[in-house]
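Researcher: Going back to the complex we discussed earlier. I've cleaned up the inputs and rechecked each line, so this should be the final set. Can you rerun the prediction on the complete assembly and write out the structure?
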Amino acid sequence: MFPMFFWAFVVGGLICVIGQLMFDVAKLTPGHTMSILVVSGAVLDGFGLYEPLVDFAGAGATVPITSFGNSLAHGALMEAEKHGLVGVLTGMFEVTSSGISAAIVFGFIAALVFKPKG
Amino acid sequence: MGRKTSPSPVEKGYQELQKKHELKRPVFKNCIRAFLVGGFICTIGQAITYFYIYYFDFTEQTAGNPTVATMIFLSMLLTGFGVYDHIGQFAGAGSAVPVTGFGNSVISAAIEHRTEGMVLGVGGNMFKLAGTVLLFGVFSAFIVALVRTLLTMWGVL
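Model: Rerun complete. Updated structure for the full complex:
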């Protein structure tokens, strides 16, 4: 159990450092950085490389935004195995539904409850 | 913006002057902070993952989903009470790259635009910042899955 926490910390931290380098060295906007990270998550899953990283680092790989691209591609590939080409579209949100639905639901609740600051 | 012609001598001089006075970004310090905070957020995520594995019947593979939802719930509380902004100023990418940063961008946009009304304000602006992540995530996943499926069908893979 302890090594899992350690690797989650290290791998998650390293992915954030990559993001920080894209901010500071490549001087990209946060929007560009996030988009590139999401795309690389999807591409890594296309080569079957993201799943081993999740097994190795747990939340260190599932919590950064790269996992969003990974689970989108993963859902699409899983459905495509069952239903062929149509599955690429229908399976897209199969795995990743929780992130987006949580963001929408909690975002709206927050808008009802909290008032903007400053 | 984006003019490609070579700068005149005056412009060149100004650019050099600007470069000289531009604030140097403390890259190394920022990276350390991003590493520590990002790693810490992922460690919390790991604790939540174990919670879902031991108390609900999730496996190590499927526990990522409820973990992400819980992290976004936490990010709602932190964003609503104005704490996440402070973390973001300290940690840079360390707080932006984890899904809590994605949640923060959706939730802060929703809170910020509530004065413009629920439909046009909150509904219309919620994905103002996070929309680009959704677009490129979905589109790249579509291309990746399409290419892989076609290659499998043709017997290349």
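Model: Worth noting: Chain B has a mean pLDDT of 88.
Researcher: Good, that matches what I expected from the previous run.
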